Amino acid sequence: MRTALALGLSLAMPSLVASSFVMSAAAQAQSGAAEGQKLAFDRGKGNCLTCHEIKGGDLPGSIGPKLENLKGRYDRAELTAILNDETVRNPLTVMPPFGRNRILTEQEISAIVDFLQTL
Amino acid sequence: MSAARLLLAVTAAFGLGASAVAADKPNPAADAKAFQDYFVKKFPKVAYDDFVNGPYSMNADMRRQWEEKEQFPPYEFALEAGKEMFAKPFKNGKTYADCFPNGGVGIRQNYPYFDDKEGKVITLELALNRCREANGEPPYSYVKDEMASLTAYMAFTSRGKRFDIKIPDDPRALDAYEKGKEYFYTRRGQLNFSCASCHVQSPGERIRAEILAPALGILNAMPIYRSEWSGMGTISRRIVTCNSQTRAVPLEPQSDEYRNLEYYLSYVSNGLPVSGPGARP
pLDDT per residue over A97-106, tens digit each? Predict the structure, then answer.
């Protein structure tokens, strides 16, 4: 039984791996962006709406700038740096240092950046 | 002065002060003037005394709702209870009135004060519990209920009287003031906010649907009925809540740090009228 299962798996594996590679880039960014939006709107995570107006979010705050056309203005590294610790660029910012203070993990920040790049 | 410049001035005072300018002696009077001028300049349309009304001074819609609510103010029950409690004698026959100047009536504007015997800041909440203990009664929780009722009554009898916080010519008083100021401008907690991040840099702005109150006059309205709390809260409660909301570890109510903070924040609001008890969303 066990051997049969293992055999079946090992037979199935290559095609699975191959197809996941085929679908990867675009689809992954899409699911990253969806996950990122969830994290961005979650009050216990990014909680971005507390300060920023974002398409798709209700009752936004007004402390930070509206988040739009981000892709044209910042590259991925810049967005990641802002989320990680904006006080590096602007010591007077009130934006929490999400990475430095471990409010969000690296993966969570990466997913939010995926989302921000869709805005 | 812009928020940036005010903060930079403060940062400079704390960060570089020691090494750069030993002669940069604390100057509370100049601080208070700069603080008040900053808000006046930032909100030229707000009548000066209106700063004690917090978010309502910054938003017409909220103001309308508040004015309607004030017909039947949500702090009314606490105020009535406070009045009764204040008049009721302790088991030893004495009352709160025996502990305070002028029988405790119309004196809110003088708190906190610096006690030169003890060398520390005495807030109204602290003085109330000390009064109880001196008369053989157990102290109340500092954050709500009875303490909020008592301070509501004492604020009410002082409405319109202008904050008159004194810093005596005593290095310990100046030190308490400076420590309070440092606490106010120091970032803390996982979210990395100082009191000033919200209440100096961002008053009038929205955090979600709430409007941030200006630091100027923020204590003049205390204690408050907060809809978010579904109840009354004291100054202690307000500060503890601010700390936890920024994911900092709150201190004990009436710790030296909080007393010094209240001293600083009250001093820079000198000249503004008592408006408490207040109501906030």
Answer: 999 999 999 9
Torsion, Cα B213 B260 B169 B23, to 10 degrees, reads: -80
**B201 to A102: CB separation less than 8 angstroms, yes or no:** no
Q: Determine, yes or no, domain membership for A78.
A: yes
State residue A1's pLDDT score.
Answer: 41
Per-residue pLDDT reduced to its tens digit, B14-45:
444 444 445 578 899 999 999 999 999 999 99
pTM listed for this prediction: 0.88
Domain count, chain A: 1
Q: Examine residue A54 and state whether it is found in any structural domain, yes or no.
A: no
Strands B224-226 and B113-115: unpaired
Task: Answer whether A94 sits within 8 Å of B7, measured CB to CB.
Answer: no
Report which secondary-structure segment, H or E, holds B225. Answer: strand B224-226
Using one digit for the tens of pLDDT, what is the confidence trace for B87-110?
999 999 999 999 999 999 999 999
Q: Does any CB of chain A come closer than 8 Å to the CB of residue B12?
A: no
Interchain pair A62, B193: CB under 8 A: no
In chain B, residues 96-125 whose CB comes closer than 8 Å to chain A = none
Distances (CA, A) of B220 to A69, B143, B159, B214, B269: 43, 17, 9, 12, 8
Chain-chain contact of A63 with B193 (C-beta, under 8 angstroms): no
Residues 6+ apart with CB under 8 A from A95: A51, A64, A82, A86, A87
Tens digit of each residue's pLDDT (9 = 90 or more) over B131-146: 999 999 999 999 989 9
Listed in sequence order, the DSSP H helices in B144-249 are: 145-156, 171-185, 195-199, 235-245
* Residue A99 in domain: yes
Does B30 touch chain A if contact means CB atoms closer than 8 Å?
no
Token digits for B250?
A: 């709150």
Q: State the catalytic residues of B.
A: 242
**Tokens standing for B118?**
């003890």
Q: Does B3 touch chain A (CB under 8 A)?
A: yes
- Three-state SS at B63: helix
pLDDT at B8 over 70: no
| Residue A61 located in a structural domain | no
Which range of residues forms the domain containing residue A106? 14-42+69-116
